[in-house]
């Protein structure tokens, strides 16, 4: 006589299925569904762009309306590149204790005359990077390029058209026209800013505390901005 076991039948698990929604490695599978939200303008300038009354970004810069929406930059300039120049951790004491934040300096440009710079603080690095890029987009400018070097005398827009200065804090930088093929003779931070602006050949001279990356980046951006207003012309 055969004795059969008494009790519930033991559960069997198939090899192809995973238990509890997990795979063999123990990590839960998540399906990411990316939805692209439609841009709804919140300003008068955004409405003009959405309606097609403003057809280029140069018209955006020429208007007297304030640029407060980064979607306008994404609408016209779709080939912008981003570069994170510096990520610092800053701390301050408060009544509740020591608070830590991250400071990020970012620069954007299309290497064809458009350049912007921004700096932001946040509790997380990712959030600080997003804020810095957003501010850089809102500070974007269209610089004037040319060939002001007597050694080259070409009609291409590869250098600065004339000698110009820029300053931020104790840092001062001077941009001088250079012949074609020379390259950017400068420090690393200024070289990265000038590359995104579309300046391929230039001489530079610096004064002050040049080791401060933030001031060097803003001084270079200020020098490029002075190419428009001709304030820093030497």
Write the layout of secondary structure elements.
Elements lengths: L43 H8 L5 H6 L7 H7 L4 E14 L2 E13 L4 E9 L2 H14 L2 E2 L21 E5 L2 E7 L6 E2 L2 H10 L4 E6 L5 H17 L5
Parallel strand pairs: 7-8
Antiparallel strand pairs: 1-2, 2-3, 3-4, 5-6, 6-8
Helix pairs in contact: 5-6
| Secondary-structure element pattern, one letter each | HHHEEEHEEEEHEH
Mean of all residue-level pLDDT scores: 84
Q: Quickly count the domains.
A: 2
Distance between the amino and carboxyl termini = 110 Å
Query: Can you name the CATH architecture of the largest domain?
Result: 2-Layer Sandwich
Biggest sheet, strands in spatial order? 1-2-3-4
Instruction: Give the class-level CATH name of the largest domain.
Output: Alpha Beta
Shape category: flat
Gyration radius (Cα, Å) is 27 Å
Count of discrete alpha- or pi-helical segments spanning 4 or more residues: 6
What ranges have pLDDT less than 50 throughout 5 or more consecutive residues?
25-35
Estimated structural class: alpha+beta
Q: Approximately what portion of the residues adopt beta-strand conformation?
A: 15-25%
Largest sheet: 4 strands, antiparallel
CATH fold topology of the largest domain: Double Stranded RNA Binding Domain
Number of strands: 8
Model description:
- It is flat, with a radius of gyration of 27 Å.
- 28% of the residues are buried.
- The protein has 2 domains: 44-142, Double Stranded RNA Binding Domain (2-Layer Sandwich); 164-229, Ribosomal Protein S5, domain 2, CATH 3.30.230.10.
- It has 6 helices and 8 strands; from the N terminus they run H-H-H-E-E-E-H-E-E-E-E-H-E-H.
- Helix 5 (188-197) runs parallel beside helix 6 (213-229).
- It has 234 residues and is α+β, with helices and mostly antiparallel strands.
- It has helices at residues 44-51, 57-62, 70-76, 125-138, 188-197, 213-229; strands at residues 81-94, 97-109, 114-122, 141-142, 164-168, 171-177, 184-185, 202-207.
- The strands form 2 sheets. The protein has a 4-stranded antiparallel β-sheet with strand order 1-2-3-4, sandwiched between helices. Strands 5-6-8-7 form a 4-stranded mixed β-sheet.
- The chain starts with 43 loop residues before the first helix and ends in a 5-residue tail after the last helix.
């Amino acid at each position: 006589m055969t004795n059969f076991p008494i009790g519930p039948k033991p559960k069997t698990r198939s090899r192809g299925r995973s238990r509890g929604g997990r795979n063999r490695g123990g990590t839960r599978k998540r399906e990411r569904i990316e939805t692209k939200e439609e841009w709804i303008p919140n300003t008068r300038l955004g409405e003009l762009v959405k309606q097609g009354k403003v057809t280029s970004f140069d018209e955006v810069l020429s208007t007297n309306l304030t640029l407060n929406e980064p979607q306008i930059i994404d609408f016209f300039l779709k080939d912008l590149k981003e570069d994170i120049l510096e990520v610092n951790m800053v701390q301050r004491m408060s009544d509740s204790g020591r608070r830590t934040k991250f400071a990020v300096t970012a620069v954007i440009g299309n290497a064809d005359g458009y350049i912007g710079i921004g700096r932001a603080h946040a509790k997380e690095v990712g959030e600080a990077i997003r804020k810095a890029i957003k501010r850089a987009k809102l500070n974007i400018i269209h610089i004037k390029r040319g060939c002001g070097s007597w050694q080259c005398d070409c009609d291409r827009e590869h250098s600065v058209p004339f000698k110009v200065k820029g300053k931020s804090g104790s840092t001062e930088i001077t941009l001088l026209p250079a012949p074609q093929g020379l390259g950017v003779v400068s420090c690393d931070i200024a070289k990265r800013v000038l590359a995104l602006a579309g300046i391929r050949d230039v001489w530079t001279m610096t004064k002050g505390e040049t080791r401060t990356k933030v001031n060097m980046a803003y001084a270079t951006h200020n020098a490029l901005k002075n190419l428009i207003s001709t304030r820093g012309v030497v």
